[in-house]
Amino acid sequence: MGTTRKFRPRTPGTRFGSVSKFDDITKKTPEKSLLTELRKTGGRNSNGRKTVSSKGGGHKRRYRLIDFRYSKKEIAGVVEGIEYDPNRSANIALINYDDGDKGYIIAAADLRVGAKVECGEKAKIEAGNAMPLKRIPLGTEIYCIELNAGRGAKMARSAGNSAVLEAKDAGNIHLRLPSGEVRLVKEDCYATIGKVGNAEHEKIVLGKAGRMRYLGKKPKSRAVAKNPVDHPMGGGEGKSSGGRHPVTPWGKITRGLKTRNKKKASSKLIIKRRKK
Q1: Number of H helices, E strands in the chain
Q2: What rounded mean pLDDT belongs to the chain?
Q3: Number of C-beta neighbours around residue 162 at 10 A
Q4: Fewer Cβ atoms within 10 Å of its own Cβ: the N or the C terminal residue of the chain?
Q5: Model confidence pLDDT, tens digit, residues 40-66
Q6: Which of 119, 128, 149, 125 shows the shortest CA–CA distance to 137?
Q7: What is the secondary structure of 13-54 as a DSSP string?
Q8: What tens digit of pLDDT does each residue of 169-213 get?
Q9: CB count, 10 Å around CB of 42?
Q10: Could you tell me the domains of the chain?
Q11: Is 212 in contact with 54 (CB distance < 8 Å)?
């Protein structure tokens, strides 16, 4: 049995749509002390000018404060509940720490209510526990990985994702990321054992345009359907394909052009580029 369910085809919008069953969710109401305001920009900058098109609206949300910085080192905790987070594809786990504090972490696939989680040098090699990369055995699946020690988890944070620890070499760790890229990370960086849960998220089908609007995504016009004053690919008699290489409204090439800075310092840390 999967973790998604389909609707009965009573309307065009529900004919092909599917939603999560939320079987892993054990706690419906979030922890109030870990909520904060989440303002929407509508795709506009500080001057009120639209800089990102097809963005705006969406359901009202509040942000859950996730402990990506591994602030509770050497303090054990117990999983109080697994919760849904509207701001990300992964589920989150509410932890009751031994010092009386509470915090959210990204829930591992095998994490259950009542499980003990630890963070630190002496933590056990178990799903949900966090420790420095130098203490993790080769071939282990990990997620929520720091790029720089103390700067917080940056990689492998979405539903179903994980990286694999391939090798250790002179203070550096070789990580194979979900994209296929092999990258060097310092051995003092923290990561969490396991794989991010809610892997069935990618199988969800929205089914209707309205569900995309709930997510804050508005319809976007094709470039060739616009007027020449609005886009370089606009205009032409009848249906035109643009007659040129696809570009942005400001004339920058959009397909095939590599935008990564060639002088970027972190390029020397990438051993193998991601799969094309």
Answers
A1: 2, 17
A2: 93
A3: 23
A4: C
A5: 999 999 999 998 889 999 999 999 999
A6: 125
A7: HHHS-EEE--TT----SPPGGGEEE----TTB-TTS-B-SSS
A8: 888 999 999 999 999 999 999 999 999 999 999 999 999 999 999
A9: 14
A10: 4-202 (2.40.50.140), 222-276 (4.10.950.10)
A11: no
